[in-house]
Specification:
Number of strands: 0
Largest sheet: none
Structural class: mainly alpha
Order of helices and strands: HHHHHHHHHHHHHHHH
Strand content: under 5%
Helix content: over 70%
Radius of gyration: 21 Å
Distance between the termini: 11 Å
Shape: globular
Length: 360
């Protein structure tokens, strides 16, 4: 009995650590968003580039893709540096041609170029309200898994999905308020593209990371996302502008040589490493369902950090959102929890642990 109790204690401790890791991943997501969009992209050449772009959609798409490419590429450098320090750099190169490595590349193509660019573009139009909408990715992932992998949708999961979409409707309703930005609704709709891309990525990446180290998986993911943005999406948007590829290379040159903004992109890229890698690690420690729910709390953390970091700590323009926006963000996180598991199970486990302690 002592051995069983000891095993249960170790398992409970491992689960708690997994929950903490998954929560930290959601916090890191909020931090990388705040440092990228509200700090880095507010410095150096970026305000001037956006001023020239005006309301031209293609130019805004180009700038969004450029910001996502820089952030993910710097994040990839952080990833390979951390892997090298831990002696795992060789595993990165060996994993790429394998089946799980190819699955991670596919996952990155689903969630990297399109979803990341859509997320940054949505931030341009809707501010930090884009984050709770993009947090629909677990709900969308559950729906996609039903059709792609034939995974069952239980009544509880359907309830969670309904809660998430009610939250999204509440956030969308903010865009109809009299004092809302005229482009806010467009930003909310674009954020749905990011949610779809990340939901699809979650379905695919779950397979890849089940067979390779999560740190190697995130390294493959970030390298693929950054490079595909630079060599596919940015040139494509550039060719659609009047300036063509010449304008594209001009923007890239100005952005990567900007000594004022790039240090902040280095910070955002650092937090982006943990936004994804701790999500993968948390899933492996406490289960994909609970890990997804804890990570999905970035629907709350992102607006919070987008308000705190630029608005409070740096004394610049923050990203305040209406009270209903905060409520919807918290409700979204709860909906994600319901999708992942029965919330009552958390209290039942606590009750069991309490009884075990009393018995001891």
């Amino acid at each position: 009995m002592d051995a069983i109790a000891a095993k249960q204690k170790i398992s409970a401790s491992f689960l708690r650590k997994g929950v903490i890791v998954a929560i930290l991943s959601g916090m890191s997501y909020g931090l990388f968003t705040a440092f990228m969009f509200y700090v880095a992209m507010a410095k150096g050449v970026w305000p001037g580039l956006y001023e020239k772009a005006g309301s031209t959609v293609i130019l805004l798409c180009l700038l969004s893709a450029l910001a996502a490419a820089i952030n993910d590429s710097i994040s990839a450098v952080w990833c390979i540096t951390i892997a090298a320090i831990k002696g795992k750099a060789g595993d990165f190169f060996r994993s790429i041609p394998t089946k799980p490595g190819r699955m991670m590349i596919l996952a990155a193509l689903c969630g990297g170029p399109i979803a990341s660019t859509a997320y940054v573009l949505a931030l341009n139009y809707a501010g930090s309200l884009a984050a709770p909408i993009s947090a629909l990715c677990p709900a969308i992932g559950a729906i996609l898994a039903r059709f792609i992998f034939k995974q069952a949708l239980t009544p509880r999961m359907l309830l969670g999905i309904v809660i998430c979409f009610i939250s999204a409707v509440m956030i969308g309703g903010i865009s109809f308020q009299a004092d809302a930005s005229p482009t806010m609704l467009l930003g909310v709709l674009i954020a749905l593209i990011a949610a779809f891309g990340w939901g699809l990525e979650g379905c695919v990446a779950g397979y890849g990371t089940s067979m390779i180290d999560y740190e190697i998986g995130i390294t493959i993911r970030q390298f693929t996302s950054g490079l595909s943005n630079f060599i596919i999406l940015i040139p494509l948007f550039g060719m659609l502008t009047d300036g063509g590829l010449g304008l594209t290379f001009d923007y890239i040159g100005k952005a990567i040589t900007d000594t004022e903004a790039m240090p902040w992109f280095i910070v955002s890229g650092f937090f982006a490493v943990f936004a994804f890698s701790l999500w993968y690690k948390g899933n492996s420690m406490c289960g994909a369902a609970l890990g997804m729910a804890c990570n999905g709390a970035f629907s709350f953390w992102t607006p919070l950090f987008c308000w705190l970091i630029p608005g409070i700590f740096l004394g610049k323009f923050g990203a305040p959102i209406p009270t209903i926006g905060w409520f919807a963000a918290v409700l979204m996180a709860f909906g994600i929890l319901v999708i992942a598991r029965n919330p009552l199970d958390l209290f039942r486990k606590q009750a069991v642990v309490s009884l075990q302690k009393q018995g001891a």
